[in-house]
Write a structure and sequence with these properties.
Blueprint: E1 3-7, E2 10-12, E3 18-25, E4 33-39, E5 46-51, E6 58-60, E7 68-73, E8 78-83, E9 92-99, E10 110-111, E11 115-119
Parallel strand pairs: 2-11
Antiparallel strand pairs: 1-3, 3-8, 4-5, 4-9, 5-6, 7-8, 9-10, 9-11
Length: about 120
């Protein structure tokens, strides 16, 4: 089992950047596919992107492709979501998640508590 803690959320102006961090615990953390999701009130949780256990491949939702980048530091048990060119519609609670499945799957098993990102002038 793995425990996940997100940080780095906050208020940012449109066009700005923010980097979210997900800290993972457990000796097997480096073997998990890691993903990011987001959710706004009244809507279903939306897949943002994922990164393979070895960091060699990533996938992204069409809505964030070219603006968001996921990376991981296996030595530190960290996963990052770099968000650039932020838009008001990116406002949401962002969740980090872990999975045993390949990066092409959007089904995840373990979740963090979420961090709020607000994009507003």
């Amino acid at each position: 089992q793995v425990q996940l803690v997100e940080s780095g959320g906050g208020l940012v102006q449109p066009g700005g950047s923010l980097r979210l961090t997900c800290a993972g615990s457990g000796r097997t953390f480096s073997t998990y596919t890691m993903g990011w999701f987001r959710q706004t009130p009244g809507k279903e949780r939306e897949f943002v992107g994922g990164i393979a256990y070895n960091g060699d491949s990533q996938i992204y939702a069409a809505s964030v492709k070219g603006r968001f980048t996921i990376s991981r530091d296996k030595a530190r048990n960290m996963v990052y979501l770099q968000m650039n060119s932020l838009k008001p519609e990116d406002t949401a609670v962002y969740y980090c998640a872990a999975s045993w499945r390949p990066v092409t799957s959007t089904a995840y098993d373990y979740w963090g508590q979420g961090t709020q990102v607000t994009v507003s002038a």
